[in-house]
Amino acid sequence: MKKRLVVSNIGMLATPTGNGPRSGPRQGEILVLEDAWLAAEDGIITAMGQGQAPEDLLREAQVLDAKGSLVTPGLVDAHTHLVFGGWREHELAMKRKGVPYLEILAQGGGILSTVRMTRQATREELVERAQKALHTMLSLGVTTCEAKSGYGLDRDTELKQLQVMQDLEKLQPVELVRTFLGAHALPVEYQNDREGYLRLLTQELIPYIAKERLAEFCDVFCETGVFTPEESRRILEAGQAHGLKAKIHTDEIDALGGTELAGQLHAVSAEHLIAATDSGIEALAQGGTVAVLLPATSFYLNKPYARARDMVQAGVPVAVASDYNPGSCPSLNLQFVMNLACWNYKLSPQEVLTAVTVNAAAAVHRADQVGTLEPGKQADLVIWDAPNLDYIFYRFGENLTRTVVKNGIPVWEA
Ligand code: IZC
Ligand code: ZN
């Protein structure tokens, strides 16, 4: 027999609609149903409507009473460095003195410090640390999460990180999307042999990871002192040739041309974009690339905020994500990220809701499955301790979820 869930007594159901990214004025168009209900069978939404939920649906259903509250799709965190071997609080004093992020990296700290810790950690230790983070994310409303490798920078540790993500899929309810980020930094062993590392990535690791289906995306950190746009092109094209879809970290600090590259390659997403220029924004619009903006990183690095309004204006679909990592964003709180997006990107609550649901789903190639509440989509949703959409942007700094549902199953309760 089918397992049925009915969410009744919804004060406001707010959701974007459709199976793809929403851009321009459509980014802010949300379907709002007041006094609503929603039904799911075997984890898939089958019906929704207004007024009392139909009697025949309520029979033999698990009923969740929303008590007049707001219901939205489950949140999608489209950019995280979830699996890492340790924190970098030892860099706090340096950061407070104003030593720049790239200088800490050039001195062998930053990403390279996390690489040392991640190489030393066992698979079990990495699973335990990431599982704890996922539990907190889930409590904050996140039901799908992208996760990047990139703290191994050698064959065994990169594979270990991706395998940890596979392990986590079986241990907890948050759905993971795996990204290979072997091009996160040049490892110390290859400091005098860039070409050797590029060959390792493009000729060995990418083909193997694609063949074993260990990742769905290939990503590169295109930045001053890290990988050039030419090197990024080589890596992403190798990924695409083997079936790994392209993502790129670009214009986080300097605009080198990585954003234009993203558009040219029709990358699924380009991420950070703090320093993006007009030509970069135009390229994203042309390429159909989702801009994944990370406002908590601007907050933490004390940097400007990406030009979100200009991107919406130019017709680029904007997603917003956490960038959870031990260096530039040691926070996984997507609700805080939503507040920042509202205040510092000047996006409306409706635009931000789209940015953390269907546009984030599009950035991880899942928009036909998650990111909206509509028949046929997965029943991933949040019942908020809030009466309407404005409320969750107006409050900040504490968790406002009441119940989180993944695939039709309540998996977290306040
Ligand atoms: O560990 O510093 N920007 N990669 C690119 C990061 C931030 C994560 C880190
Ligand atoms: Zn990142």
Give a concise summary.
With 414 residues, this protein is α/β, with parallel strands linked by helices. It contains 16 helices and 16 strands. The strands form two sheets. Strands 1, 2, 3, 4, 5, 14, 15 and 16 form an eight-stranded mixed beta sheet that branches. An eight-stranded parallel beta sheet has the order 6-7-8-9-10-11-12-13.
Major beta sheet summary: 8 strands, mixed
> Helix tally?
16
Bound molecules: 2H-imidazol-4-ylacetic acid, zinc ion
How far the N terminus sits from the C terminus, by CA atoms, comes to: 29 Å
C-alpha Rg (nearest Å): 21 Å
Give the proportion of residues in helices: 25-40%
Task: Count every beta strand, where a strand is a DSSP E run of 2 or more residues.
Answer: 16
Low-confidence stretches: none
| Assembly state of the chains shown | single chain
What does this structure look like?
- With 414 residues, this protein is of the alpha/beta class.
- 36% of the residues lie in helices and 23% in strands.
- It has 16 helices and 16 strands.
- The protein has helices at residues 55-58, 92-96, 101-106, 111-120, 123-139, 155-171, 194-211, 229-241, 258-264, 278-287, 295-301, 308-313, 334-344, 349-355, 358-363, 389-394; strands at residues 4-15, 31-41, 44-50, 61-65, 70-73, 75-77, 142-148, 175-183, 217-222, 245-250, 269-272, 290-293, 318-320, 381-384, 401-406, 409-413.
- Strands 1, 2, 3, 4, 5, 14, 15 and 16 form an eight-stranded mixed β-sheet that branches.
- α10 (278-287) links the parallel β11 and β12.
- α5 crosses α6 (155-171), α7 (194-211) packs parallel to α8 and α9 runs parallel beside α10 (278-287).
- The longest helix is centred in the middle third of the chain and has 18 residues, at 194-211.
- It is globular.
- The two termini are 29 Å apart.
- Zinc ion binds next to loops.
- 2H-imidazol-4-ylacetic acid binds next to α4.
